[in-house]
Amino acid sequence: MGYAKVSPVLWELLERSSRNTVREVLVIYRVKNAPKGGMRAGFTSTEERAGFAQERARIQARTQSMLLDKYRQSQESRPRREHTADRGTVGGSSLPIISVGVTKASLKSLADEPDVVAILPNQPIHLIGPEGVTCGPLSAGETKNHCTWALDALGVPDFWETAQVRGEGVAVGVLDTGVFADHPALSGRVRDFVLIDPLGRRVKAEPNFDAACHGTHVCGTIAGQPTADGVAIGVAPRAQLLVAGVLLGEPTLATLFEGISWAVDHGVDIVNMSLGFSYYEPQFGDLLDLLLDDFGVLPVVAIGNDSHGNTSCPGNVKSAFSVGALQKRKGGGLEVAPFSGGASLALPAEAAVEVITKPDVVAPGVDIWSCIPPQESDGETYTYGYMQGTSMATPHVAGIAALLMAARPAASVRAILQALRETAWHPAGHLRPDNRWGYGIVRVGDALKELDTHASQNARRGR
């Protein structure tokens, strides 16, 4: 039986349940002979990427139907009281994921299907919320520099000038609390918005809204326009944003997967996530690998705010590109924020113990100034504010990835990830990666040079 396909948490849940208890699970399956979009060179626009996703959906519809039919037939010989409930599909679109109900007995037959890749329980998820929110004006130093301290620390303004790109042609999916798209800093940036309700349904909502301040703040860090005073807040101010409100009510993995599916359907290049749950779920890595290799979509994930020794999933799985938070040190320099998560996970493998060290990289995540929905405080109305958390660091990295994609549209997402890791700066470089800094703070200019070097080497080898 395909034990390795099944989430360890799901086994535990079913072992503690009665024989006939039905659990909703999410099943990732394999689509044979389906086209892959892991190399971004084949796409010249988000419309082409969306068209590719639609073609994938058409091809895999037959595999999905056959898999569901076989699963239903395998249950017909069982007593009626042991029958499982067919929950339908997640998205019914580009991502090869279905949602079904299983019992102890039916899980075995489902895991035995050769096209099944992973089976996860439909667990609750939560926002990795900010550690602090302060409404107020920008600091004098940032006002003088005409950009936030984070953009300055990352070398973003210099990159804009040398590379002459600011995220043009790149679409970033933001899976969060929503967005206040009428904010002046987001004018013309939010290309589409959808609400995913707790039942996993896609709901169009006008006007676009943010159930908290979080999603709007994240969107501003990725692609916000300069303020009226000319202060830059967004890393990639010409990128497009596609926002899915997935953190309303009682969200679950199915809600999140539906939001990811919607974003992929609409041709995103990157997905930004500041959410998850506290345990380690190895099967989540199969979804992230699918995004990277089959769709050429780069997932950027917050590692969590529970301090050293703790991580959140999906940020802690091997194929995640997870981000920790930096703060300014008194007296100058940068240090990892005390709340920023990180750990080294020792996991059993076929030949030896495998150690996964997270986060992958770090970026500024304390005292980050960005746009928010209008907030009343002490008789004043504020539309900008400071937040801190790994979910403030994550959109900086998503924005930097957007800059690299705009500068080198032929580069694969795997090459971009490799360049960001290899060129990150660590205060003790010979020890990297560690579970505080990861590989270090991302350096967009050096990452671009690494991409060019990699491309030149491949050209000489005739690849």
Question: Could you tell me the strand content as a percent range?
Answer: 15-25%
Major sheet characteristics: 9 strands, mixed
CATH H-level name of the largest domain... which superfamily?
Peptidase S8/S53 domain
Structural class: alpha/beta
CATH architecture of the largest domain: 3-Layer(aba) Sandwich
Low-confidence stretches are: 79-88
CATH class of the largest domain: Alpha Beta
Cα Rg: 22 Å
* Total helical segments: 12
Kindly identify the CATH topology of the largest domain.
Rossmann fold
Number of domains: 2
Which of globular, elongated, flat, extended, rod-shaped describes the shape?
globular
Span between termini: 39 Å
Count of individual beta strands: 19
Helical content band: 25-40%
- Average pLDDT, all residues: 90
Characteristics:
three-stranded antiparallel beta sheet, 463 residues, Rossmann fold, 12 helices, 2 domains, nine-stranded mixed beta sheet, alpha/beta
Walk me through what this model shows.
The chain is an alpha/beta fold and 463 residues long. It has 2 domains: 3-121, no CATH class; 126-407, Peptidase S8/S53 domain (Rossmann fold). Helix content is 31%, strand content 22%. The chain is built from 12 helices and 19 strands. The chain has helices spanning 8-15, 46-75, 104-111, 140-145, 149-153, 156-163, 214-223, 253-265, 284-294, 390-407, 413-423, 444-460, and strands at 23-29, 97-102, 116-121, 126-127, 132-135, 171-176, 190-196, 202-203, 240-245, 270-273, 275-276, 298-302, 321-328, 334-336, 343-347, 354-358, 361-364, 368-377, 380-388. Strands 6, 7, 8, 9, 10, 12, 13, 14 and 17 form a 9-stranded mixed sheet that branches. Strands 2-1-3 form a 3-stranded antiparallel sheet, sandwiched between helices. Strands 5-19-18 form a 3-stranded antiparallel sheet. Strand 7 and strand 8 form a beta hairpin. Helix 11 (413-423) packs across helix 12 (444-460). The longest helix has 30 residues, at 46-75. It starts with 7 loop residues before the first helix and ends with a helix. 51% of the residues are buried. Residues 79-88 have low confidence and may be disordered.
